[in-house]
Structures are given as C-alpha cells and as structure tokens.
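Need residues for this backbone.
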C-alpha cells in the first residue's frame, strides 16, 4: 500500500527549504518504531511537498501516531492510477497546537523543529503509544517551548533553567493558558533540596477533560529555577524517558556557571553525566546546536565520554541545516545505553 503525506509550507523560508529532508528523517524514525523500514521518497505534487512510502496497510492507531509528525498536514493513500485518497485521521495531539506557539520571545526555537526532535527521541525508544508514560526533560528550558511541545503531544514535562525571569514567564503563561481553556488543574509552588541549595519549582497537574482529571488520568508539568547541574534533584522519584535541549547558539548567549562564563564544551562535560542519570535505562537524548561554535564531532565525543551511545547512519547524517548566516544547526541523538534501536545500515 502506498501512502503520501503532505507537508506544511513553513513560514520561515530557510526552514521551509529543508523541511522535506528533516521531515523524512523524522518519519523514518517514527516508522521504525512501528517495526517498518520503507524507503521514504521526497516528492513535489502540485507545488506542494510530500513524503511517499510503500508498506503494509497501517492501522488507524498507527496512522494517528504518524499524524503527530511535526510537519505533516495531510495524509492520503495513493491509488494505482496515482490519485490521492485523503485519510480522515483524528489528531494525535492531547492539547491544542497553539500551546507552544503563542508565547513569543527573542531566541525562541521553533515549535515545529522542537516537536521534530521530540518525535525522533521518543520513536528511537521504540514506544509510539502511551504518551502519558513519557516524561520529557529540558535541562536548559528557557521559556519552555520544549515542555509545551511535550504537553501538546500528551507527555509529561520537566524544565530547568538558571534564568529566573524566563521560568517565571513560562509559569505565568501556562497558568493563564489553563484558565483561558478552562482546563481542570492544580498548581503548587515549593522547593527541592539540591546539594546545599533550595531549588524552587512550580508544578502543574492537569487534564484535557474534566472527566479525565477526576479519574486521575492527568499530566504533569514541572518548571524549576537553577543551574542545570542540579537536575538530579528533580528525578529522585521518577526518571525521564527523553531529554531534549537546544544549546545556546553564540557567544552572546554563552552559558554561565554561577557568575563565571562557561564554554559550550565545558558545559556539556559537566552536565551530560548528570543528564544521563536523569534518564531511565532506555532513555534517549536529543541535542541541537550551532556547528559554527560547537562542532558536531565535539558533541559526539562528549556524549560518548559521558556514557551515551550516539545514533549513526545516513538518517542521522542529514540533519545539518542553515538557520541564519551565523547559525548552521545540527541535531545529535544518543541512547543512554549501548543498545541501538535504529540502524539504517541494516
């Protein structure tokens, strides 16, 4: 059976130019989680971008899972004579798509790119269902775009950042969002003891429907203020399943350790072992970064030094793309342990 998935025409012209290539990498990972390894082709049909592949007949739940692809806006079955038969598939999203989009700020990573990283990390665990059992952790969360993408997909989320003002804006935004959408929830502010410091955090427990909330079928968002080195304090009881982080892109956004500027390699060398300990045994990490300030081989080497096993193969070698003149972004994904769940060289 042949399927053709239409892709969005992204507002960012630079991202639009690479969305088919990145979307193909994402789709291959998501299909692999369904135990499928088809050849996915990039196509242009009527001036629109499509990803086309042939495989066994997909179930409705599998199609619903694939509809969560970051760039797919249209799903169709292709007939033998080349016509497209549209598929009416319920959305895979738990919350409306406006959640990660509404809060605007300078330096924000695009929600669709963040969702792509998240989808790839989750699918590389080999678990396309039961999103409510997934916790996504962003140890450099800023104003929370990655956390909101995870919540939209039906996961739980934990965000940590040293910028108190940024975290406060994320907390205020989500509190307003819950009220505006009439979502049943609780909000609790408290502190965790981290080393000798207090780690202030705000925790939301909520559900998409009132009946789900009353039945205990809830989701959780935790936003904390502190250095990323304090992340173990957030995972004493429950481990994360995926980590995603968009590393600072340039010198003007360089990380700090206390009041001292910290180099990107030093940040990763210090933090990666701690992030690894926050993951469960099948955990996957996805890192995006500017290759002009942090070369890919350095990121791979630091991941390996921390005990991670980076994924390799042609799918993972096609992620580099230009964001702007001074930013050429890449993504590296790695598993906590040596078991490789995806190898496109088979």
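Answer:
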């Amino acid at each position: 059976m042949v399927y053709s998935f239409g892709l969005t025409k992204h507002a960012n012209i630079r991202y639009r130019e690479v969305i088919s290539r990145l979307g193909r990498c994402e789709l291959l990972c998501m299909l692999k989680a369904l135990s499928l390894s088809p050849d996915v082709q990039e196509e242009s049909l009527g001036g629109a971008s499509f990803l086309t592949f042939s495989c066994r007949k997909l179930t409705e739940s599998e199609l619903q899972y694939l509809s969560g692809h970051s760039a797919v806006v249209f799903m169709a079955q292709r007939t033998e004579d080349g016509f497209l038969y549209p598929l009416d598939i319920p959305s895979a999203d738990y919350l409306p798509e406006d959640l990660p989009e509404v809060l605007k700020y300078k330096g924000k990573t695009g929600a669709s790119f963040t969702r792509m990283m998240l989808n790839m990390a989750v699918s590389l665990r080999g678990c396309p269902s039961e999103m409510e059992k997934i916790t996504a952790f962003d140890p450099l969360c800023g104003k929370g775009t990655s956390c909101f993408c995870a919540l939209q997909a039906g996961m739980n989320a934990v965000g940590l950042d040293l910028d108190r003002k940024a975290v406060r804006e994320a907390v205020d935004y989500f509190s307003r969002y819950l009220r505006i959408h009439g979502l049943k929830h609780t909000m609790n502010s408290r502190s965790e003891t981290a080393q000798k410091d207090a780690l202030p955090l705000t925790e939301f427990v909520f559900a998409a429907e009132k009946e789900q909330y009353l039945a205990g079928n809830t989701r959780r968002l935790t936003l904390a203020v502190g250095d990323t080195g304090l992340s173990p304090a957030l995972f004493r009881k429950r481990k994360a399943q995926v980590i995603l982080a968009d590393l600072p892109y340039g010198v003007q956004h360089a990380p700090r350790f206390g009041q001292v500027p910290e180099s990107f390699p030093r940040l990763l060398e210090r933090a990666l072992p701690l992030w690894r300990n926050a993951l469960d045994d099948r955990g996957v990490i996805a890192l995006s970064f500017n290759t002009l300030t942090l070369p890919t081989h350095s990121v791979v080497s630091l991941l390996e030094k921390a005990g991670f096993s980076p994924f390799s193969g042609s799918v993972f070698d096609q992620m580099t793309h230009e964001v702007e003149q001074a930013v050429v972004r890449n993504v590296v994904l790695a598993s906590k342990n040596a078991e490789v769940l995806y190898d496109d060289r088979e």
